[in-house]
Amino acid sequence: MLQISLGDIEKHFWLTRSVARCMDVSLSEAMAEGRLTEQGYAEMVTRCRAADCHRQCELWLATRQACAEAAPEFCANADVLNRLK
User: Fold this and answer.
1) Contact criterion met (CB below 8 Å) for 77 and 29
2) Contact 64, 21 (CB under 8 A)
3) pLDDT (tens digit, 9 = 90+) per residue, 35-81?
4) Which of 22, 19, 49, 43 lies closest to 31 in space, CA to CA?
5) pLDDT band for position 4 (50/70/90)?
């Protein structure tokens, strides 16, 4: 069975939240409104952990000066985040 090495859970939790925040998306509000389940949130963090784009993500976050209209194309959670926008 193929095993995928996952990144640090805390780091990827914050990367996921930070990209959402740059898009003016509150994941907490999305859960409270029923647009995102707890399971869906956990899956987002796991997808982030499994993707190998954290360096690109950190650079993208560091260069944000305005609200992003969409998630970066390399983001493993782009589809979900864009849907929640």
Assistant:
1) no
2) no
3) 999 999 999 999 999 999 999 999 999 999 899 999 999 999 999 99
4) 43
5) confident
Helix (H) or strand (E) holding 58: helix 54-62
> What residue has token string 């509150």?
26
The number of beta carbons lying within 10 Å of the beta carbon of residue 50 is 13
What stretch of H or E contains 21? helix 9-22
What letter represents residue 71's amino acid? A
Of 73, 74, 71, 75, the C-alpha closest to 23 is 71
> What would the two tokens of residue 62 be?
């560091």
Per residue in 11-24, pLDDT (tens digit) is 999 999 999 999 99
